Amino acid sequence: MRYSKYFIPTYKEIPAEAEVTSHQLMLRAGLIRKLTSGIYTYLPAGLRCIKKVENIIRDEMNRAGAIELLMPAFQPAELWQESGRWDYYGRELLRFKDRHNRDACIGPTHEEIITDLVRKEIQSYKQMPVNFYQIQTKFRDEIRPRFGLMRGREFIMKDAYSFDVDDEGANRSYEIMHEAYSNIFGRCGLKFRAVEADTGAIGGSYSHEFMVLADTGEDQIISCTNCDYAANLEKAEVKPPELPSENGGQPMLTLEPVDTPHIKSVEEVTSFLGISPDRLIKTLIFVADKTVVAALVRGDHELNEAKLTAFLGAQSLELADAQLVEETTGAPIGFAGPAGLKVKLVADHAIKKMKNFVTGGNKKDVHLKNVNLDRDFEVDLFADLRIITPQDSCPKCGGEIQFGRGIEVGHIFKLGTKYSHALKALFLDEQGKEIPIIMGCYGIGVGRTVAAAIEQNHDKDGIIFPIPVAPFEVTVLPLQLHETAVKETAEKIYKELSDNDIDVLLDDRDERAGVKFNDADLLGIPVRVTVGVKGVKNGLVEIKMRGESASNSVPLQEASAIIREKVKSLYDSLK
What we know:
Blueprint: H1 21-28, E1 32-36, E2 39-42, H2 44-63, E3 67-68, E4 74-76, H3 77-83, H4 85-88, E5 94-97, E6 103-106, H5 111-121, E7 130-139, E8 154-164, H6 167-187, E9 192-196, E10 206-213, E11 219-224, E12 230-232, E13 256-259, H7 266-273, E14 281-288, E15 291-298, H8 305-312, E16 317-319, H9 322-329, E17 344-348, E18 357-360, E19 366-371, E20 381-383, E21 401-416, H10 418-422, E22 426-428, E23 434-436, E24 438-445, H11 446-456, E25 458-459, E26 462-463, E27 474-478, H12 484-499, E28 504-506, H13 513-523, E29 527-531, H14 533-537, E30 540-545, E31 551-555, H15 559-572
Parallel strand pairs: 3-7, 15-17, 17-20, 27-28, 27-29
Antiparallel strand pairs: 1-2, 4-6, 5-6, 7-8, 8-24, 9-10, 10-21, 11-12, 11-21, 13-19, 14-15, 14-16, 18-19, 21-24, 22-23, 25-26, 29-30, 30-31
């Protein structure tokens, strides 16, 4: 590819709209351009990166036995209503009516569509297992699109769906996809980790997120330093505390109301009463599927809404508004407590260990001291409801945990019969009995993968692409194009590399050397070959690897072979 005949519009300045590094560099390097909020055009160089990731995905998915198809972006509402997600999915689902006034949406995911296809085409256990995948544009109407391709409204996604006759087969399909994803992100040159995750709006019983490790990642990852346990912050389990013996605890003190005028927050209450936050219980009022529920956590802990939603088996969970809080507790926000509440009470395990603690008094400007479980109130259910902290230990082995950051690029789910049961995707087993198909689903954000590669690999000068996803493997920079020897040498190297299937960009623009160097660094091309007058006269060209400060001069006659070996070594280092 010749730079002069290509289209790579670069920026020197950082665009004001771009908040994170990948967004800044993808705009500056001419990989993407914004159309409107959360929607981008992939420019030629950016599209090359996207296609390289897609090719790796296809290769590994095909190797894993998955079959590619392509489903419509248009999805009729009837299928979503049949699955129960039409109302549950929320405003991220872009709904519209066609000219016949029929409800429809633009697909954010394709569980309903693939299940509808399979229920019509697969009726026997002999037709399974099977796994279908596609690479297709999705749309989710994010309330606050940000970070470029990290959280856009329109995006390219690989989604796959497995269908099995039993749980054993479904587990096998899940493990095959887990291995395929590990191969995909490894071949993309990324440092990543698979972590346990919440299933969210997709549903199902079990899932893993594939996280690219990066300090700028918006997701927190918890991992054990002693075993292989890892989870995202939403999913990370908290080991229940050991309870004191019945005779070893302190005596229960007399319940005591205390006036706390205009004092509501944990910080205000604990400071006013001269206690530590772990002596206080927060009572939070939620609406779970239209039912009011009170959740209790210790004052120094933070409630994990994903855990609470999963524990309740709720389709939706919302914090109650001020009016509902007052109707439920008899007091304004900030004074709720468990004593006397006539709603379902669920509490974090840590509450079991507490005695003589402080709660809201369910009365304006009143808190209660020396509150005790069982004597003053009863909890309906205990569960792990809080966000893990650095002071906690590994829930599996009790070892020390560490916190890191990551960018989600893939997510795999065990769906079970969530969709096959709702949409009646049934098959006949060996005994002729009709039962629901067991499903799994598996997604990769293609654009996010490219953006994550940039977040993980960059410096002050620009992108440092891993070679498998770089728009070009090599760039050849002739510095004095008016010199015949320079031009002919650059052309010769360019042709030799191209003839040997090296993805090479010849920067044949009539630009200053500094401009060419800056653009090569900005674009993140792994191998740079500089052809200059002085070097050519001495029979030499200069080779520099992106991300390394030193360059090497090599004999012109050996340059093509050395460059090819450099490219090969970069790929070999990822094996």
